[in-house]
Write a sequence for this structure.
């Protein structure tokens, strides 16, 4: 994730809606993938138009001006009242509960970070208005509660975070830090974050787009296993008996050992962890033992959306050096490891496979925009 510069010269961060130095309103321009200071357009104030640093005109996303849960802008030639991120939502939380606005805001923050990386990687993001059956969508749902014992509420129906035909469902409770930590402990996990959920579930979406019924299905099966194995049985076995024995020697995480679909989704999520965190480190001019961290998400020629300056080996070596530092810094502060994983050779090969799939898609994108 890059930082940006305000017109006053101070640093802007991806989630800012206002410059903390000069107070000017800022917004993210999805067509430029940049955060920009915004100036009310004198001739069009009644239309709510703002001029960005690129000279073009924009409107605030409806969820920006109405709820302040978004900071993305809508180009003037786009008739939709929602930005490219918010229009992906199929279900939002019940806003009659004031606390839900805060939880929804946290969900949207992580979703926008996911989308930033997807756009930077030139990955296709098709909404469900365009493709009702298989477009990408997000549903933020709450557990259904019932009053069984006086005023004590119990869960009647539990929302399972998951993916189905492009629709990603997330339990709103994951946006409550204490509840998420409790679930992490219950599931014996070392890492559980909102951005991790979004990245993992997006992996299922892109498996359908890139691997399913494609020429990549056989190479996928040779590396990850046969996805035609009974998923329900695999899930039952995992939760009844735990991960595969010696999973640390084969899979990138315990959950990845459950089924080839989950192995792919976990590997995909880790790949997105890598490229986004390395871009952040590079943006801060980070070096480890004299080795400057390279930015894997950089512009190439006329191709604005941007991939990639580094080979996979370079990317992975930078990642290993960087995560060793991140974990050491966290331990100095008494925090959990930022990246509590050791990547075995077989998982490394799977990460390389994901890298090649992304590169192949990027080449298709460049050819179609040449």
């Amino acid at each position: 994730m890059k930082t940006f510069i305000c017109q006053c010269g101070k640093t802007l961060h991806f989630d800012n809606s206002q410059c903390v130095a000069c107070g000017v309103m800022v917004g993210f321009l999805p067509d430029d993938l940049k955060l920009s200071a915004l100036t009310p357009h004198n001739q069009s104030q009644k239309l709510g138009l703002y001029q960005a640093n690129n000279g073009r005109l924009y409107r605030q996303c409806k969820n920006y001006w109405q709820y302040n849960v978004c900071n993305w802008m809508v180009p003037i030639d786009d008739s939709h009242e929602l930005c490219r991120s918010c229009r992906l939502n199929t279900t939002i939380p019940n806003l009659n509960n004031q606390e839900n606005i805060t939880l929804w805001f946290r969900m949207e923050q992580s979703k926008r970070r996911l989308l930033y990386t997807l756009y930077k990687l030139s990955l296709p993001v098709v909404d469900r208005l365009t493709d009702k059956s298989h477009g990408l969508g997000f549903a933020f749902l709450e557990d259904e509660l019932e009053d069984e014992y006086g005023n004590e509420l119990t869960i009647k129906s539990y929302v399972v975070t998951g993916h189905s035909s492009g629709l990603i469902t997330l339990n709103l409770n994951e946006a409550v830090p204490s509840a998420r930590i409790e679930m992490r402990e219950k599931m014996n996990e070392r890492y559980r974050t909102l951005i991790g959920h979004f990245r993992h579930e997006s992996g299922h979406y892109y498996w359908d787009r890139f691997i399913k019924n494609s020429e990549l299905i056989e190479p996928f099966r040779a590396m990850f296993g046969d996805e035609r194995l009974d998923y329900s049985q695999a899930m039952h076995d995992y939760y009844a008996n735990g991960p595969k024995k010696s999973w640390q020697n084969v899979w990138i995480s315990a959950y990845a050992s459950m089924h080839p679909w989950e192995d792919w989704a976990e590997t995909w999520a880790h790949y997105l962890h890598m490229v986004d965190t390395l871009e952040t480190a590079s943006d801060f001019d980070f070096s480890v033992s004299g080795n400057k961290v390279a930015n894997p998400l950089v512009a190439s020629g006329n191709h604005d959306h941007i991939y990639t300056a580094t080979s996979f080996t370079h990317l992975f070596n930078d990642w290993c050096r960087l995560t060793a530092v991140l974990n050491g810094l966290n331990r100095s502060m008494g925090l959990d490891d930022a990246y509590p994983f050791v990547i075995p050779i077989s998982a490394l090969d799977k990460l390389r496979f994901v890298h090649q799939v992304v590169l192949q898609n990027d080449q298709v994108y460049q050819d179609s925009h040449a």
Q: What stands out?
A: The chain has three domains: 4-82, 85-212, 244-370. The chain is about 40% helix and 15% strand. The longest helix spans residues 260-283.
